[in-house]
Amino acid sequence: MKHSQPAITSILFVCMGNICRSPAGENVMRKQLEDAGLAAVVSCDSAGTHGYHIGHAPDSRMIEAGRKRGLPMTGAARKVTRNDLDTFDLVLAMDDDNFEALIALSNEHNRHKVKRFVAYCVSRKDSEVPDPYHGEMRDFEHVLDLLEDGCAEIVREIQKSR
Fold first, then answer.
1. Domain membership of residue 98 as a residue range
2. Residue 131 falls in the annotated catalytic set
3. Which one from 21, 30, 78, 116 is the annotated catalytic residue?
4. Which of 45, 59, 84, 131 is catalytic?
5. pLDDT at 3 over 80
């Protein structure tokens, strides 16, 4: 899937509270960038559309699921800002509600940067990255499966654009 946009040097992952999906996306992407030799040229971060968990580490269940895959699951929750939409080259919403919140926060100059993460998934065809917060461990594993799929495609696109 080809997405027309300028070279990506910074990526922001966004979910609701910034303790499950978006920090997982940030950590999956960071590992894949390191593995591809791109960590020095592409940065990533995560944020939430709500401020419920500001300063909190990722959810302990996501930390456990990530560590099983060799991911450190680091980070501290923060709320997305208007400035983030100007700063980051690619802003990835985990679901439709967060996509709409980001569109509402955006303006005519940065709206094109806001994308649905699942648009980058190749082998998995979910319509959203589901929120695992009220689920079981298999829900956290499913989120990581989606993130690994979509992040791999983003890395491929970055490699092609270099």
1. 10-157
2. yes
3. 21
4. 131
5. no
